[in-house]
Amino acid sequence: MKHQRIITNAEKGIIIEEYLTGPNSSREIAKKYNVSQRSVTNWAKTYKEEIMGTKNVKPEEENSVGSSKEKSLELELRRLRKELEAKDFKILVLETTIKKAGDLYGVDIKKKLDGK
Question: Which of 22, 51, 55, 59 is buried most deeply by CB count within 10 Å?
Fold first, then answer.
């Protein structure tokens, strides 16, 4: 049985960001991070569908019991959670980009921005 490494959401975010914005193929990124190529493409697909809104959120199950107000609130909660997740991911991508740029130029960009 193969030992599976647990990938955190932060790691997935970095991998997805590199795949979607960088010049490397999913195969190259999979090799770099020691994950399967299928995982990289699936994570990117899921990100595009859920976070970027290329696919609608699945509707509530038909057998769900509750008033229309409860359903409305549940949908709003789901939408807000997705929005928060998207914002968190965007922050992660931006912080990673700032760190990489800082490493590339030898300057702590974040520290300079926080000082102003």
Answer: 51
Q: How far apart are CA 57 and CA 50, in angstroms?
A: 7
pLDDT single digits (tens) 49-97? 877 665 544 444 444 455 778 888 888 888 898 889 889 888 988 888 8
Domain definitions of the chain by residue range: 9-56+80-114
Helix pair 26-33, 9-21: axis angle to 10 deg: 150
CA distance 81 to 105: 36
Whole-model pTM: value is 0.46
Contact 17/9 with Cβ under 8 angstroms? no
- The dihedral of CA 101, 103, 104, 106: what is its sign? positive
Q: Which two tokens stand for residue 88?
A: 């968190």
CA separation for the pair 94, 55 (Å, rounded): 24
